[in-house]
Amino acid sequence: MAPPKLRGALNMGFQMMITIGILVANLINYGTAKLENEWRISLGIGVVPAIMLCLGSLFLGDTPNSLIERGQKEAAKKMLQKIRGLDNVDEEFQDLVDASEEAKKVEHPWKNITQPKCKPQLTFCSLVPFFQQLTGINVIMFYALVLFKTLDFDNDASLMSAVITGGVNMVATCVSIFTVDKFGRRILFLEGGVQMFVFQIVVGTMIALKFGVSDEAFAWSWGPLGWLVPSEVCSLEVRSAGQAINVAVNMLLTFLIAQIFLAILCHLKFGLFFFVGFVLIMTIFIALLLPETKSVPIEEMNKVWKSHWFWTKFVPDVAIDHDRKTNV
Predict the structure, then answer these.
(1) Which residues of 98-122 are buried (b: 16+ CB within 10 A; e: fewer)?
(2) With CB atoms 3.0 to 4.6 Å apart as the test, which of 43, 87, 196, 326 could cross-link to 217 if both were Cys?
């Protein structure tokens, strides 16, 4: 429901909430560090947001889209009027109804996304989350205390360093929210990739000697954009499959990296060098293959792929004609 000109910033609200949660968790860990049974208290406090989430769900209303899909059009229109604060929502309401009708016509999204014409969508829904995790960000997020302690930081200093890392992460995400719809996705991807490449070389060297981080580069580029771009490149016929692939790849890589990194660190000592090559590859990947999607309506994405020097060979003219007819 987000307008194209604000889609980037609104979509990144998801990542913003994650960074706030990370910062709050680090602050709780620091605040409870000197208490008896501190880890039990820290872990137990996690029940507070869980209870808030459960209670909040009791007051959460249905979305207009959900009501339309269940045939409750009058209730959907009233809900849309409530959300917008306007009485005249006829045009937007009709767009939602039309979109719902089109969605009902979609069959076999998993089969559709494997077709040659959907190769751009499949590529970005798979490789963006793949590369996002191979930036090494979750190594810093998961094992910040371990990394700091291996460099002779005491317990308090390690906890405070984790808080600082979480704070930088949150502030940098704010930077991305305010710039993504102004400067576009590509420039943030490329700037973040270059910065991470340089700083991870520095970090790898300093872990062999001393320590540093490149957290902020991820937080305003690959962190929020890793969720934004896959969500806006898929047409209706493959959107559900594309989003499922995006989440599945992200979670799988998160699990694998969490399992193997400590072994890498123990054997290589300066294991963050492991991720530098991937940062270089993914930055080149974005530079060559990702067109700018800023302010482009999702239903017009096929035009963007068709105008790209590489993807044009996969997107047939019939896909553009289909989009035009759908919009009309």
Answers:
(1) eebeeeeeeeebeebbeeebbbbbb
(2) 196
What is the chain's mean pLDDT, rounded? 82
The fraction of the chain above a pLDDT of 70, given in percent, is 87
- Helix H, strand E, coil C: the string for 31-97 is HCCCCCCHHHHHHHCCHHHHHHHHHHHHCCCCCHHHHHHCCCHHHHHHHHHHHHCCCCCHHHHHHHH
Phi, psi values for residue 37, rounded to 5°: 55, 40
**SS3 state at 104:** helix
**Three-state SS sequence of 139-202:** HHHHHHHHHHHCCCCCHHHHHHHHHHHHHHHHHHHHHHHHHHHHHCHHHHHHHHHHHHHHHHHH
Residue 130, both tokens: 């793949």
Contact 197, 279 (CB under 8 A): yes
C-alpha R_g of the chain: 22
DSSP 118: G
208: its two tokens:
């062999």
